[in-house]
Amino acid sequence: MSVQRFYFDHNATTPIAPEVLETLTSCLGQVYGNASSIHHFGQAAKQRLEAARRQLAVLIHANPNEVVFTSGGTEADNMAVLGVARAAAGPSKHVVTTAVEHPAVLGPCAQLEREGVAVTRLRVGSDGVVDPDDVRRALRPDTVLVSVMHANNELGTIQPVEEIARIARRAGVPFHVDGVQALGKIPVDVETAGIDLYSVSGHKVYAPKGVGALYVRGGTKLAPIAFGGHHERGRRPGTENVPGIAAFGVAAEVAGCNLTSECDRLTVLRDRLENAVTSRISGVAINGSRWKRTPNTSNICFEGIEGEALVIALDLRGFAVSTGAACSSGAVAPSHVLTAIGLPPERARASMRFSLGRGNTAEQVDALVDALEGAVAHLRRISVYA
Amino acid sequence: MSGGVDSSTVAALLVRQGHPVVGLTMQLWNQRRLPELAAEGGTTGRCCSLDDVYDARRVAEQIGIPYYVVNFERQFEEQVVKPFVEEYLAGRTPIPCTLCNNYIKFDRFLEMAESVGASRMATGHYARIRRDDASGRWQLLRAVDGSKDQTYFLFGLTQQQLARTMFPLGEMTKPEVRELARSMNLAVAAKGDSQEICFVPNGDYAAFLHAYLEESGVPKEPTRGSIVTTDGRTLGEHAGVHHFTVGQRRGLGVATGEPLYVIATDPERQRVVVGGNDELLRARFFVKGVNWISIAGLAEPTRAQVKIRNKHAAAPATLHAAGDAARVEVVFDEPQRAVTPGQGAVFYHGNLVLGGGWIE
Q1: What is the largest CA-CA distance in chain A?
Q2: Residue A306 is part of which domain span?
Q3: Domain check: are A319 and A277 in the same one?
């Protein structure tokens, strides 16, 4: 069985861009020095490392020396949440976050709770957006960190991080933003927004897995979560993954160049998908805000179907989509994000995430809609439980 | 595909025969639950372990078929595990495999198979399905390999379910299946057989019950009671009727001259009734919830061989209609040992499965 395959799961991960692949393979083959070494080989590696740091800094409007490379988004989130909370002084500590964060933030928050830190997880509206006033009201004298994601991985909804940054700044509380799903999809400006820490991941922007970064505003107190050498200005020990980081740098540059045009192109494609689905298939609803969203993400509920079955049926027809976060595939519990926006379990389980990217075309979207129409009709015919 | 040799061989066989095949594995139980049980016996050989999924995935890759894990933990909990626990607490001896076949495998899972576009579902069960042209019915027959026959657990299959099911191993013996798996170089050819109740480690259902109730936060009621003889003498104490099943000899903790067996359990009075081997014998009993397979029902008293537990050799009996089509009185020619409420009673005519139900 050989089928033509189309990829609509770019929020899970992205393919490596051709320019990025070229950098990656040339670095892997030739730039093998340890960036900490004094000699020529070390210096060559160091040059690639610092070039990448500058490229990423440009994309998020940061100073290059405020960029710390990590092994990925999860490590960056852990460094920020655990690092800031543990570095703060005081007998009692409090962290404010939201109920729709990625597990890479919710996990370390739960760990902080076990260590005696109080955690407030703010609820979101049915649009998936957190109310900045809720952040203001949640702040306490002992609040040491506010952590809110920029764009949600399942819904694509964009949080009002600029407004929340102003609130946190006024209260003197460091503000962390998980920007993994925003980087390369919408403009990011940590300087203007007044964000103190910003997590990003390479493989969501057409760079390889295993590389990420944390922006740390100068002066932010951060306790280390790993111990060893003095790499990354003493903020993250471990020999740098130079090929991965160099690839991430190139990916950031490419993303910056294409940001506006790709944003417009994906918005058109996403709207084409949603308009066709809502007009051709009955019993569908778009989850979360239709307006404050990344241009590539669409989360749609198909009433009466089992999402798991639809993912498999579509995959067998050559279309890769997902029911939610790839990290929680196979989980029994319905998505915590869809639950947080008020979806009952059966609607959450009937929901699908389509996340578009560079490789997708209008023809692919049309083919996806055809396949969806057939598969949903088939599933609804079979299911006696619908 | 469970990751075992049987279902792996089925998948490989169907591919070899030229069928387009999709491999599906059911995730039924979260191995991270009830860690105290895992600590005792380890998790190898238990259902839905990551090792089993790894094996199934490896076979699917080897034979070149699309493969997916589908999650039915929620349904398994509701339809199989909870009833299993409730039955034990009510003093009966349940068979979760039959519940799983009736409510998960040949119901939700079959529906999933159809949902993803499969016209039929093949499993590694040892049983045979045949269409009888005279009656127009789908019939179920014992496997050629009598020692592996699993029809006892399949008595709940409806005509629609049988019409969409294939049991390719029904015509083969287990050694033949292993030989076939080896000849096709399947990675799991030498893997050991799975245990009977997949979610109960080491067959210690009492420990499972204890851990499960602890986890669900059910307030523990005192379960201690007395062990009494059929003529009313108290012989000793027990820790709870759910530790006992009819016919059990070991673990009574009372010493008497002649061997004693559990004759009945009485959860209401928390008594375990014991007696001699002869007292276990029963000649007649009722079966409820009967599903007819190879015949449409009982028009008149019908001769059959009746099997009252998996390891029981089916014994000659006469089936009498008892009220409605789903209730039958079984009258054995010779009284049989340990007719146990909650177990299945399956009616055979030679290799043909007529139907079956639950012992009252």
Answers
A1: 70
A2: 6-14+259-382
A3: yes
Residue numbers in B near A332 (CB within 8 A): 30, 71, 73-74
Rounded distance, CA B25 to CA B318, Å? 40
Helix axis angle for B50-63 and B5-16, nearest 10°, is 20
Which residues of chain B make contact with A382, given a CB cutoff of 8 A?
111, 114-115
A179: left (phi over 0), alpha (psi -120 to 50) or beta: alpha
Distance from C-alpha of B196 to C-alpha of B198, rounded to nearest angstrom: 6
Domain covering B5-124+167-205 assigned CATH 3.40.50.620 in the classification: yes
Tokens of A360: 């997708």
Question: Is any Cβ of chain B less than 8 angstroms from the Cβ of A345?
Answer: no
| Distance in Å, alpha carbon of A383 to nearest chain B alpha carbon | 7
- The pLDDT of A320-338, averaged and rounded, is 74
The answer to whether the CB atoms of B115 and A313 lie below 8 A apart is yes
Residue B285 CA to residue B315 CA, distance in Å, equals 14
B100 is catalytic: yes
When scoring B70, B116, B120, B161 by the number of chain A Cβ atoms within 10 A, the one with the most, hence best to mutate, is B116
Return the SS3 of A292.
coil
Partner-chain contact B115 A383, CB within 8 Å? yes
Selected from 2.40.30.10, 1.10.150.240, 3.55.50.30, 3.40.50.2300, the CATH number assigned to the domain covering B281-359 reads: 2.40.30.10
Rounded to 10 degrees, the C-alpha dihedral B88/B94/B96/B97 comes to 160
Q: Which residue has the tokens 């559990």?
A: B262
Give the pLDDT band of residue B226 (cuts 50, 70, 90).
confident
Tell me the β-bridge partners of A157.
A293
The CATH number linked to A35 is 3.40.640.10
Q: What is the pLDDT of residue B240?
A: 81
How much is the pTM? Answer: 0.88
Find the range with the poorest average confidence among A258-272, A324-338, B234-248. Answer: A324-338
